[in-house]
Amino acid sequence: MTTRKTIANDPDRAPARSHLYAMGMSEEEMRRPVVGIASTWTGTMPCNLTHRELAAHVAEGVRAAGGMPMEFNTIAVSDNLTMHTPGMRTSLVSREVIADSIELMGRAHGFDALVAIVGCDKTVPAAIMALARLDVPSVILYSGSMMPGRWRGRDVTIQDMWEALGERAVGRMDQSELDDLAKHACPGAGTCAAQYTANTMGSVADFLGLAPFGVGDIPAVAPEKNAAAFQVGEIAMDALARDARPSRVLTEDALHNAIVSVAAMGGSTNAVLHLLAIAREAGLPLEIDRIGEVCREIPIITGLKPSGGDHTALDLWRAGGTSLVARRLLAAGLLRENVTLVDGRRLVDVAGAAHETPGQEVVASVERPFKRRGALAILRGTLAPDGCVLKLGGKSDFRHEGPARVFDSEDACYDAIQEGRIVAGDVIVVRYEGPAGGPGMREMLSITGPLVGRGLGSSVALVTDGRFSGVSHGLVIGHVTPEAYHGGPIALVRDGDTVVVDSAAGTIDLLVPEAELAERRAAWRRPERPVERGVLAKYVMTVGSASDGAITV
Ligand code: FES
């Protein structure tokens, strides 16, 4: 049997050993399995602020289990901090950059195993995508939610901040109240504090089997988090011993369970994009309509903001966490049992060991859910032949027919809303905000909050080839494909055209005669490329359809 050549035993790699000695490593340590610890720490956001500390505890766990940790970190972009600047176009792009960074480091250093510490929205799918590409034994550590803020006797989150902008616009709140709320909404480190995109994807990591159930639930600043991080280091070494690679953990059944978790927990529409991307990277079959089919059957069983109720992620942790959700879903036969998780447990083990706090009111049963309908639906029709995503948020089925109010950017639409030019019944169409056209699929954060704040959340439909923040709610339909930049029908809509959204039928149609549409199509010209240089230009040239996860290969 030939021994695998490593830095420790390959005579020709003496120069590499000299660099390891330079970092204080001993010969004995060089002979250990090397566990890469990818942290998505940046000092530019609260979401990932704890990652360096967590990485140190993961490293201790790796060392204690006989491994040699090597830490590195990536970039990350917070959607809240980059709003109202060109920065919002960078958010989805950052998913690709983070995935590529982790992949490159993995390929460069040939780590035997990996731990990825993730938090803010894009960092979770990005890490999973990279781990799927590298396919070495890997564990995800979700760094955890922020505590909710307290303001005027109630729990508040970043969602309240966005909606407060609309309330200020209609005079229900003044600037000093808005500024005071800003001081209280986000009390410390951690991800946005309810079932918005980051926590949705944190739960997805659990149900995909890549993150140990129970760890991600622990809030970012809870004292228990560091001990859990130490355990994750040990789990990584154990996963290495069992050869628990993503290709053996992240199976079709696990992917199905993750889709169910998004629906059952009232998760973010961004999960559609990310699940499609993860499936592509893992080589698993998944079409966008399949996500809609699964979600249609699953009620919302957690009472979490923004779709299930008013509870926060802290409440879910106290109630029993995602393990309790898994128990409920398994009991109802909604999950596929034939999965083995990265820590070696089976889903039934997790469900059996789940703790339920007596009297908790956050996790319901499938038989008596918070909302009978699921989180989202997939629509197709003449306005979106390749599909789009409706954020149902547990609402009953609805039909909305109204005149289109067309805007070629989120910013133009923002002005119209704040100036009171949008009225009940309208169908707002915001286009050229797709993956390539924006570029980067902005999240429409500046318009969904004010719409709700102005009381138009349930009387105005918003249709876009961009996407939505996890905090968004209302009659919102995003990810319209083909996108306007590629000449999809959304590019042909004109003010006053009738648009019909029918959630029960799963359709979204533009009621314009085909002959008229053909004329408009013949006259349509693709706009100039939105950017010519740098990372965004590369993204425009390589990004695919949102219905394929907007990946760049
Ligand atoms: Fe980072 Fe919400 S903006 S988790």
Automatic annotation (TrEMBL):
It catalyses: (2R,3R)-2,3-dihydroxy-3-methylpentanoate = (S)-3-methyl-2-oxopentanoate + H2O; (2R)-2,3-dihydroxy-3-methylbutanoate = 3-methyl-2-oxobutanoate + H2O. [2Fe-2S] cluster binds at C47. Pathway: Amino-acid biosynthesis; L-valine biosynthesis; L-valine from pyruvate: step 3/4; Amino-acid biosynthesis; L-isoleucine biosynthesis; L-isoleucine from 2-oxobutanoate: step 3/4. The modification N6-carboxylysine is found at K122. Its EC number is 4.2.1.9. Its cofactor is [2Fe-2S] cluster; Mg(2+). GO terms for molecular function: 2 iron, 2 sulfur cluster binding; dihydroxy-acid dehydratase activity; magnesium ion binding. It comes from the Bacteria. The active site is at S469 (proton acceptor). Binds 1 [2Fe-2S] cluster per subunit. This cluster acts as a Lewis acid cofactor. Belongs to the IlvD/Edd family. HAMAP family: IlvD. Homodimer. Functions in the biosynthesis of branched-chain amino acids. Catalyzes the dehydration of (2R,3R)-2,3-dihydroxy-3-methylpentanoate (2,3-dihydroxy-3-methylvalerate) into 2-oxo-3-methylpentanoate (2-oxo-3-methylvalerate) and of (2R)-2,3-dihydroxy-3-methylbutanoate (2,3-dihydroxyisovalerate) into 2-oxo-3-methylbutanoate (2-oxoisovalerate), the penultimate precursor to L-isoleucine and L-valine, respectively. This is Dihydroxy-acid dehydratase. It comes from Nonomuraea turkmeniaca. The lineage of its organism: Bacteria, Bacillati, Actinomycetota, Actinomycetes, Streptosporangiales.
